[in-house]
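S.,

Sequence below, as promised.
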Amino acid sequence: MTTSDENDKKLSTKDITIDSMPISSEEMIGWINSRRSMGNLDTPAPTQAQIETAIECAATAPDHKKLRPWRFIVTQGDARYELGKALVTAAQAKAVQEGDTLSEKDIAKTQAMPLRAPVIITVVTKIQAHKKVPPFEQMLSAGAAVQNLILALKAQGFSTVWRTGLLCNEAAVKSHFDVGPDDYVTAFVYTGTSPKNEPARKPIDIESLVRFES
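The prediction came back faster than expected:
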């Protein structure tokens, strides 16, 4: 028997398979250029099957020697409150280090951070010792995986925002996600549905960003 999640996954995979889409390269480039970060997201959220499809796309990121130096943790529902607690613990520890204290307002704001979207996909590194693949390459691979993840979620109709912040690699947050001392939380990808349309992006002047050599 085929479950509804399996059906969703088949449909969502088909929707983002280029070979089955009547779309030109210009349309695809325009679609990528239209991506915008959207905060304060709501339901509907992606299903498990849709999330798995997006992670499959993330896992196609350039990955020297196929080390797969990234992992994905999906936080939703009540688990978001536990993440909020970890963020508060991290914020309090950071404040103590800086000789400061958190106000009740700061604590409440920090606790509520994960509630800004129905689903958060956290991308963490799993850097491995390899003589041909230095850590910086593996970190860049994790960043590429995040971008693929975001675009795959957009392809399925969902908005996202890539968040990190000052607390993402504090000890309490790393511990929450079982991230080792030499690894990193590279992204909190908040995803869901935005009540607003994505604003049009102004043309980007790349002249100062590129140099052609021949």
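Residues 135-155 form the longest helix (21 residues).

Coffee later?
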